[in-house]
Every structure is written in structure tokens, then in C-alpha cells.
Specification:
By secondary structure, the protein is an alpha/beta fold. It is built from 17 helices and 17 strands. Helix 9 crosses helix 14. The chain is globular, with a radius of gyration of 23 Å. InterPro entries: FAD/NAD-bd_sf, HpyO/CreE_NAD-binding, L-asp_N-monooxygenase_NS-form.
Length: 500
């Protein structure tokens, strides 16, 4: 029996494993013979889908110095290590996503070596986990696709995000690519002269459109969007330390206002923080329903200011932890309203694109290589290709590529594992996304509301509880929280003996 099974070895799983070994080395407990099992398909082992080689030249949207799980500069130091390739990469502010994946894979390999040096037995199962069941005498049984079951005292679900949601029921239609990036075989089969509709106008959609151009695509490419919003462009922003809109301050506001606490309270306190930074809430630009021309004009305006600090971006970049606190305190009706009315625009503005990507997009729009279709309200598979209905009229495309990003809802068919967890009541869907869990511990809640002791969720599966889970610092904080509990379980008998 393994003491701990980690399902998923992408960014979250890799950092969790590393933090566990960090803590075990630090406390010096004798963990000889303790066993950890890492379960992940071979193709994404150590990188996850988000940072795997299939992402082409798509860039990180954080600079090298801020792309860190632990906040200690490890990634920047790894990039700057001696070696011609890394030195060349270190000169760029925004590196390819696959470079971060290479770093994660290196971190995982080194963490496994460190674990074995202190006596921990590490089993690596390069397979898909397809089920988790409660064990007959405690713990859990993890079933895999082809490698047999794994019995574990504790399990962490760190499989990453579900695939993009097929909101127009296009799955199975010829010419439909269900998710990009990564750029797999279905995507690479798109003919160079095809008319391509890229569903989604945020980071993934822009990366996909630019990737098509980089490989020599000659046919028309259009970004398809309901709200017509393009991401903001990252300015030359210094870090901002929150002064008023802090987790502690918002807990006090919640206690003071009681039942009156709501979205208006959050926006009021955030506006106050923005004023301290010399910005206004209206500067964020959450206006939706923009025409294609209006969206392009705002992109040009953002580019013109990109060499300057953008105060509201600095503030919002520091709010991930406090947003989680606020999200959990909001009434359910307020959270539902936000997801329906502000979520898409908030994420478009809150998660900016690098200047280099924005310049490439601007040039492509001006040359006519990339278009923007706003106000999309329906897409249907036709005899040949697809018909897109938008406020500006109808459009026809040969191919549709779904770049709407990870679905918040764990929909049926997202994976065999989540289907089993939900079907057997081991876990339950959160109304606001992901799985229901106990936020302060990360433990999963069963369908009957009971806490599943020893079963944790990390990353995208926790979006219902924390709202923002894609940011690397959020993943890092969650991993640290779970690592503390896993280490305590691994060393508890020794600690008890030491106290006695």
C-alpha cells in the first residue's frame, strides 16, 4: 500500500510533490520506507497539458521573474543557468509555455531523486487514473487504465482542467477541433487555405490564430466571440502590495456587514484600493458588446500605453488570494450573477497578453490575416463546414477550433475519472465550477456533503471554491496547504513519540 497517491503530474502536482519533499528534508523525520505513487499518462508527465510541447511557440503571460510557484525565483534561476539555449531564452521577457514545462519536468525528476535519497520509495505509474474508491479498511483504491489498482492512504486529484466546453454541440462534426492549444493531430490536419473560425478571443484563441499564421496558413482566420472583447495588453507594471483590499480587511468587512455583504461590497473595497494606486474601477474597461472595430481600437490604445505602468493591472495582479476570500463569502445569487454577466469580461481584462503577442495580433488584423467576429450567438454544422450566426450577420467556415479554455463545470465525459467520482457519489459538482470541497483544507466533499478524509483536490477542480485557479501563485498556495497535511500524516507517529 502506498502512503500517498498523486494523480496528475502537471504544474500543481509537480509543485505539491516538491513541497512535500522540501518539508520532509527540513523536519528531518525518518521516512525510510514511506511510499509515494505518482500517476500520470506518459505524454504529459511532468509538464501537464498546459505547458507541454504541443503548445508550439505560445507564450507565458507572465514574465520570467514572476512565473514562479514558490515565489523564490527558482524558475528565473533555472532559465539563467549556464548553457547557450537557456542564456538566449533568459534575454526574453516572456518565454514559451513549453519552456516552463521543461522546467517543471526537471523539477519533478529532481524531486523524485531527492525523495529517494531520504528513503522514500517513489513509484511512477505512467498511465491514466480512471477511478477512486474508498478502501475496505480505510484509505482509497485508485484504478488505472492498464496498470492495475493502487491502494493509498491519501489521494490528491491534480489532473488539471477539464477540456473546453462544447457549447454548440459540434463534437463529431467533420472539421471541428474540440480544444486548442495543445496543437494536436486534429489541429495540424487543417489545410493551409481553409477558412478557420477560432472560437474564443482570449489568450488561447489568440495563441491559436497566431500559431496558424506562423506555420504558413493562407486562408482567412477569424476570432469568434460573444462579447467581442480582446484581452488587455500587459503594461510595464511594478508589483503592487495591497493596502486596504486585503484578505484580513475583507474578512472584517464581511463580519461588519453580515447579511448585507455582497458583490457591491467587494467592488467598493476594490475601487478604494485602485484609488490608492491612482486608478479608477472604470479603467479596467469591462464594457461588453463591443463591435470588432471597437475591440481593435482598444487593442491599439492598450498597445500605445504598454511601455508605461498600468496601475489597475498592478493592483489586480495582486488580488488572487483576496478574491478567493471574497468569493467564498459572497451569497450564491451574487456568484451566479457574476459568472453570467461579468466573468468573461473580467477574465479578458484581468489576464493580459504579452506585448509581443498583442503587436502580432494588431499587425494581423490590419493586414486582414485575422478578423474578429463579435456577437456570436450560434454555430451549426452544415453539409460543408459550419454556419456562424452573429449580430453582424452570417459567416461560413470550413473548420471551427474551440479555444474557449478550460470549462469551469466538470461536464459528463470530461474524463473517465471524474465521471466515476461523480457517478459513485465520491465527489459532487460545485454549482460554481469544479468539485465541492472544504476550502480551508482542500478536502473533497462527497455527494452527501461529508468530508472525504484523505482525498484532496488541487488546481482547476477547485474553481468553484476559489474562483481563480489558473494563476500560478494560486496553485502554489493550494499545494503548500495540502503538502502540510500530507507531511503531517507521513510523520505523525514520530512527532507523537517525540512529544511523549
Amino acid at each position: 500500500m502506498t502512503d500517498f497517491a498523486l494523480i496528475g503530474a502537471g504544474a500543481g502536482g509537480t509543485f505539491l510533490f516538491s513541497r512535500i519533499i522540501d518539508e520532509l528534508e527540513r523536519n528531518g523525520a525518518d521516512v525510510t520506507g514511506k511510499r509515494i505513487t505518482v500517476i500520470n499518462p506518459d505524454a504529459t508527465f511532468g509538464t501537464g497539458t498546459a505547458y507541454g510541447p504541443g503548445n508550439g511557440e505560445a507564450l507565458l503571460n507572465r514574465s520570467t521573474g514572476r512565473m514562479d510557484l514558490a515565489g523564490d525565483g527558482r524558475f528565473a534561476r533555472w532559465v539563467a543557468r549556464p548553457g547557450a539555449v537557456r542564456q538566449a531564452l533568459a534575454e526574453k521577457e516572456f518565454l514559451p509555455r513549453r519552456t516552463f514545462g521543461e522546467y517543471l519536468a526537471a523539477m519533478l525528476r529532481e524531486s523524485i531523486r531527492r525523495a529517494r535519497r531520504i528513503g522514500v520509495v517513489v513509484d511512477v505509474v505512467r498511465d491514466e487514473a480512471i477511478g477512486v474508491q474508498a478502501g475496505p479498511s480505510g484509505g482509497y483504491r485508485v484504478d488505472t487504465a492498464g496498470s492495475g489498482p493502487v491502494s493509498a492512504g491519501a489521494v490528491v486529484l491534480a489532473m488539471g482542467a477539464p477540456g473546453s466546453h462544447d457549447q454548440y454541440a459540434l463534437t463529431g462534426a467533420p472539421g471541428y477541433v474540440p480544444q486548442a492549444p495543445p496543437f494536436g493531430a486534429e489541429f495540424e490536419a487543417i489545410p493551409d487555405g481553409a477558412r478557420v473560425g477560432v472560437l474564443g478571443s482570449r489568450l488561447s484563441g489568440i495563441d491559436t490564430a497566431l500559431h496558424l499564421l506562423s506555420r504558413g496558413h493562407t486562408g482567412p482566420i477569424s476570432l469568434l466571440s460573444r462579447g467581442g472583447m480582446l484581452p488587455s495588453v500587459r503594461g510595464d507594471n511594478p508589483a503592487w502590495e495591497l493596502q486596504a483590499f486585503t484578505p484580513h480587511a475583507m474578512r472584517r468587512v464581511r463580519a461588519r456587514e453580515g447579511a448585507d455583504f455582497g458583490l457591491r461590497s467587494v467592488l467598493r473595497e476594490l475601487s478604494g484600493e485602485l484609488r490608492l494606486a491612482g486608478a479608477r474601477f472604470s479603467d479596467i474597461g469591462l464594457t461588453s458588446g463591443l463591435t470588432a472595430a471597437q475591440s481593435h481600437r482598444r487593442l491599439e490604445e492598450d498597445l500605445a500605453r504598454s511601455h508605461e505602468p498600468v496601475a489597475w493591472q498592478s493592483v489586480l495582479a495582486s488580488t488572487n488570494e483576496v478574491i478567493s476570500v471574497c468569493w467564498q463569502a459572497l451569497p450564491a445569487t451574487h456568484r451566479h450573477w457574476f459568472l453570467r454577466n461579468l466573468h468573461s469580461g473580467w477574465m479578458a481584462r484581468r489576464v493580459p497578453i504579452p506585448v509581443v503577442s498583442a503587436r502580432a495580433l494588431d499587425a494581423a488584423i490590419k493586414s486582414g490575416a485575422i478578423g474578429l467576429v463579435a456577437g456570436v450567438h450560434d454555430i451549426r454544422a452544415a453539409r460543408q463546414g459550419f454556419e456562424v450566426a452573429a449580430e453582424s450577420g452570417g459567416e461560413r467556415f470550413d473548420w471551427i477550433v474551440n479555444c474557449t479554455g478550460a470549462a469551469r463545470t466538470v461536464h459528463k465525459g470530461a474524463s473517465r475519472l471524474t465521471d466515476q467520482l461523480l457517478g459513485d457519489g465520491i465527489a459532487a459538482r460545485d454549482l460554481f465550477g469544479g468539485l465541492r470541497l472544504e476550502p480551508r483544507t482542500g478536502r473533497v466533499l462527497a455527494a452527501d456533503g461529508e468530508v472525504q478524509d484523505g482525498l484532496y483536490a488541487l488546481g482547476a477542480l477547485t474553481c468553484g471554491a476559489h474562483y481563480v485557479t489558473s494563476a500560478i501563485d494560486v496553485v502554489g498556495r493550494q499545494a503548500e496547504l495540502i503538502a502540510e497535511q500530507i507531511v503531517a500524516a507521513l510523520t505523525e507517529p514520530q512527532l507523537a513519540q517525540a512529544v511523549s
